[in-house]
Amino acid sequence: MADESPKVNIENEELQKKIIEHLETVIDPELGIDIVNLGLVYEVNLFEDGLCEVQITLTTMGCPFGDVIEGDIIGALSSIPEIKETIVKLIWYPAWDPSRMSRYARIALGIR
């Protein structure tokens, strides 16, 4: 199983790290694991005007917590001065599966 890291299209490595750290504070309410380690964050783009686009997926199409996760992402990134606005794009391809999870998430959920 290969862990899938989000694609972060930001040249400043320190800012990349800060954004990922903030996204790791967003917990999937159903599974109790952060969205980065679950592999739900597919891509992060930061544009020159301070607009941050976060492309995510959910573990299932019928997940009732999509709005909660979206709000938590916006809240988590709001304290980063370089980010003026955050939009969350929900995407379904490629479909999420457990192989996207980090080793930490698999261990925490008891998945081998």
UniProtKB/TrEMBL annotation:
Domain of life: Bacteria
One of the Pfam families matching this protein, by short name: FeS_assembly_P
Residues of the MIP18 family-like domain: 17-88
Regions crossing the membrane: none
Protein name (Swiss-Prot/TrEMBL): Metal-sulfur cluster biosynthetic enzyme
The species this protein was found in: Atopostipes suicloacalis DSM 15692
